[in-house]
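Supplementary Data S3. Sequence and structure tokens for construct A.
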Amino acid sequence: MSRPAAVPRAPAQPVHLVLGPPEHGVTRCALELHDTPALREQPVVRLLDGVTADLASALVAEGHEPGTPVHVHVTDRLLGRSAPEAAARLAPLARRWPLTVTLHDLPQPSDGAGAHERRARAYAEIVAASRGVVVSSHHEAALLDDALRLAGRPGLVTARPRAVIPLPVDPPAAPAPSDTPDTPATPATGREVGILGFLYPGKGHEEALEALAAQPADVGLVCLGRPSPGHEDLVESLEARAAELGRPCRVTGFVPDQDLLDALRAVAVPVAPHRHLSASGSINTWLAAGRRPLVPRSRYVEELEVRCPGALLVYDDLDAAVGQALEDPAVTWLGPEVVLGPGRDDAAQAYAATLADWSTRPETSVIIPYHDDQRGLDLLLDALARQTLPPGSFEVIVADDGSPQPPVLREQPYAVRLLRQPDAGFRASAARHLGATASTGRVLGFLDGDTLPTPDYLARLVGAVTTGEGPCGTLAVGRRRHADLSGVPAPEVLAWLADVADGADGADGADADHPGAVPRVLPEPGWLREAYAATDDLRDADDRSYRFVISAVMALPRELYDAAGGFDPGFVGYGGEDWDLAHRCWLAGAALRHVPEAVAWHDGADFAGRDDEDHRRVKDLETLRLARVLTDPLARDPRLVWPYPRVVVRLHVGDAGPGAVAGCVAGLLDGADAGVWLGDVDAALVQDLLGDPRVHLGEPSGEVLRRCREQVDVAAPVLLAGSLTELVDRGPVRTELVIVRRTRDLARHRARPRSQTGAGGDDGIPAMSSAAVGIRPVTDPPPLEAAWGGWA
């Protein structure tokens, strides 16, 4: 059950900032989309020169003040003389205008090693500055993921909303010419193979020219377009090579719109030979002219074939494809059976819906677990209203943990909702998970109901999450300080929060003339300060650093939260759920970060500093509760059997007998905090082994895999010279019989770009012989009776 306490002001319509000359494909795409019923009423700011123009001044001059959503179709070449310059021009704009972008010409390895890396870093900066990203194909989405990882910003893969909206393709403007000798489809001057668009190295003009060598002498090349800036010399080199081949070759320069259709239909063989397309407006232009272009096989082309079956002539050998098209010109024309799409109106409607969603969807959801403290909640919600983060960029969800009466939510400048769960004990973990499940933000922030943020708390903490450090996202924890707020009126508390954020000395204690008017500062836990100092604010985190994460002042990407499984609703009682989640986030590959500038003040002393009779009892109960789920070997007694083992072993049984299986399982479990899952086995063969709670059939569950520290795959029953614990402690191992991998390494490996993992998904573990690590196969096991009785 929930209700909004306030209805946020409707956001302004997005402004379309369209950059570049009208003949540029990206500019043309933006203008054509805007000239549709779905987008026509939205304002547009037009700049012919996006490289040198003052983007902010242009927006203000048109009456679009900071805070207005802005959408830009981006290719780095329209914004700067280099990719880094383009990113540097957009990032400051995004700090004042909520920016969404459509990215074109995605970085890819064909750019060349240095250029690929530079462009990847620049595009990552643009993504980091934006609130949402559109790409024009799923192929582009994959290229973007790889670029973000190459740039060292893989967390951005999931930190921004993303939509795939294909480039529009208009239906053919006129029917195909009759396929008769009396109605030629080519110019009388000869037969030409045509390529549309700007001329630049790598687009395929040279390849197409070479493909003409085997064709009749009258077959030439026509380049429908002009050279890209800086590549004017390409015209001369093409003409020189054509002369060597004895082939006609002409470059038309820019073809005006009124002449383009005739030019496209006059070509004998339309070709789009670029092998490294991310998406292609030129292919769509050929299709709109009724032509079926020759295109080399690629991931993007295969995607386009699925969307528009029969629209392309896909080749592996251009020479042969051109020859076949010259022999049968009809194949280069679209038939009535080919359905193209999406049309311009469909694409524009998708843009309108996507931009409307992004302009109203908060980037951040703040989840507050609550129980029967109306004054504290009022203070907290008022403190959130004073955040430097714009109110429209975050929502607040109050998750009530079974209070006798629901809290009253006053109207706020941000959206706020109430969710409730029944009283079934202290269930802060379940309340947090309830709020997270109902939230809509891409970043989840958790703030306890008795903890008040300083004005820049959210901006600093969310900023640490959205920078995208770490291949699997960043879990950020703020600085929780402590003060006694009792007896201090709410206005004074809120004013004090602003003062201490600005560095005032009011945090040191109450004014002698106004006792109780200023909160009294209480000590911070020294162990946390020391831990953050020793780990460089968790930049040097290790397998035990999850203990330095406090859910009262925490934020992380939604995708990381989901990958780790979220807060465990089964936790009942005080404490521990934050360590459990942080440990699973670490195993899911997350980076940890402490943000000391993100300060929030807890009303009361730290639990460790309290002088309660039940302190040790509460802490021992928390330790036992955590030992069930924390697979950290220093957090539990390995002599006991726990429901979630530290080590998951997948044993492939194959045709091994029961003696070999039993001996192997016993050896694996000897002295180890482990569980064994038996695959490819007749259940009857191992039925008696299943009485041991550590032995299972089939595959381990997702929850088990999220919590285990190491995963071991055993290809057949084996015997170990030492213990399984010794084997996993030595680190990743790969032999012909056994592979030992850390769960965290697996998660981070999956997040690496394909260019770094290789076609086989190389995880970087060097192979060695089984004998070198004390592993031998069970080839001729003795009878179990003899083995167990000691006479084998």
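Construct B, processed identically:
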Amino acid sequence: MTPNSTYRLQIQPDFPFAAAGEAVPYLASLGVSHLHLSPVLEAVPGSTHGYDVTDHGRVREELGGEAGLRALARTARAHGLGLVVDLVPNHMAASPRHNRALWEVLREGPSSPYARWFDIDWAAGGGKLLLPVLPGRIGDELERLEVADGRLRHGEQEFPLRPGTEGLALPELLDAQWYRLGWWRLARTELNYRRFFTISDLIGVRVEDPEVFEATHAKIVELVRDGVVDGLRIDHPDGLADPEAYLHELRRATGGDCWIVVEKILTGEEHLPGGWPVAGTTGYDALRRVDGLFVDEAGAAELAEHYRRFANPAGDRGGHWEATEHRAAYKVVTHELASEVAHLTRTAAAVCATAPALRDHALWALRAAVRELLIRVPVYRPYGTDAVDVLTEEAAREARETFTVPEEAAAVDVVRDLALGRLGDGPEQRAFRIRFAQTSSALRAKSVEDTAFYRYTPLVSANEVGGDPGRPAVGPAEFHAYCERLARDWPATGTVLSTHDTKRSADVRARIAVLSECPQRWVKLLDDVARTPAPDGQVAWAAWQTALGFGYPYGDRLAPALLKAVREAGLHTSWTEPDPAYEQAVLDFVDAGPAGPGLYTVSLLARELDPHVRANVLGAALLHLTMPGVPDLYQETERVYLALVDPDNRRPFREGPPDEKTTVTRAALRLRQRHPDVFGPSGTYRPLTASGPAAGHCVAFARSDEAVTAVTRLSLRLAEGGGWGDTSLTLPEGRWFDAVDTGREFPGGGPVPLADLFATRPVALLSRRPVPEDGAREDTT
């Protein structure tokens, strides 16, 4: 069953299944068809997100357990709603105390039946699994280690003991285990298990093994087959050994009727692999296109020039996106992913050792080739036959040119051929190809999303997952082409504007995007607040933009967000090597500037821009709710929702007072609910083009010629140009009824002045069929 629309709830101990059940009547009244729940399987106690799974066989007790989930499903069904659940197949919590499977591996070693669950390189660890969990070197932590109740303990951490070692003295006992306790910093260079990105607390799971798949999916499959769960969101498929094979197995196990979308981040014009048996992505590709419509291309370029002069970003060839991206990738692949590169290097060397024609490649050359090719993968992960288009000969040539000894550069060809599967299909070759692809996705996520996005900030609203800060604007023609492709190829794909992972909520981004229409006003604001000294121009630029995005910059939310930003950027401080003096300077600047006296200056500009922020907020919301695909509303985003990074964007759901955005959202959702054939997978999409001097400021389309969406874009530029004038939009034949402001009608078949269409709001949603004035929920069964 394909959902009509979904509503994401962050289920956590402070908002369990019972609380979600209490919210069901309100959510049903909005017009959504399904609740979308964050992960529901057993996780580390107290976890607010649930991605640190500890037991795939149980529904999380802290949330109400399986009985609570089934009760929520019954409550939802009684109100006409279904459930979609977030599934985490790639990783588990690397917490032995809570992860029974990992506990058994640590106790019994490679002979444990659970050893096959994890990608562990026992040889690289000298027969031991490195656990980088200690705050200092092992010699400095010995006094805090103790054996009690048959377990090894360090503070609140607990570890099993290998049978027969309980009575040994501590030094001998440590040496006798199947694991090695180590300083947390060793993870960067010596880790010998696959993890999630660079997070050593999350250990990768080998769901490609049939027994592991069965063990880790039996409960979720049961819930699907019992009708408790109707759909699945698959977290981070790029981390899996073979995502397509996994998805085919999941489709088979769930019976083929489950709606499945994947959190696959598509870069640029990259397409989702056509062979994947899914409805589509979770929607970050839609987010980029919708956001881009509200960015002025010329103004964004002007902002970038001002940014380079003001921020004076060091080391990135004058502050250009491509250079920043490349430099960030090199930093991450060299430092944070050093252990992953080492694993790939060892595997490549093992392949070379078995083939006479490939011998005598120096280990350092193979390592350099791995690094240089990884940083040149322009997408998250190469797939199948498309890998040749990603790992191009040009990329190989550039990689070779980094070698000072041309003869050593031949290692690049070995690594490229291994990554493309050209050197055979033996165990080592397959292992290299898989791990190269997995490491590629980790590299891009960490270097782009978590580093470069915080280093290159001309327009911070463009720095979102799947985004392109170097080209933030999307024109109407590009948007329409994208929507036509969705309607044709992936009509049931997911679409989003805000998620639990977005760095800024859609409404914060909508406020910031207006700056692309008035770069000179932004420069004036910076001049007006220049008396507040900042640690550097880059942090000042990002801080003032973020404050404007909030409209009212609360210091208790702005300061943590900026502290995270400078740590992620890694230019002056970082998570692992913090500079307390610099970080304090950032906090002092926030108090003295954006959250202090500068608040008045920010508020003045925010007030000036409010009408245009309104157009962006309502326009983005309506496009999202009526374009092809299944819209997913993040909790509370049916009204204006201002949030930054976690934990700000992962707080428990709270029902709040409705506003104008709620009115538009409810109207669109109810229209979808009344006419699922119009907006669903069988519906069609047709661009409508306005005529007149301001035609470029209107984006409009028809769905199945039964509903029309029209929104205003770049409203500040529109106002400066004199408004709509005699610009008009020709509607399809028939009478058209306003679905938001009921009582208004428009004739079809001829031009309708946009000044009339947008007389009450900068957006319009029209229906060929009359809309009930009371907005009552209709039975569509």
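The chain has a mean pLDDT of 95. The longest helix spans residues 427-455.
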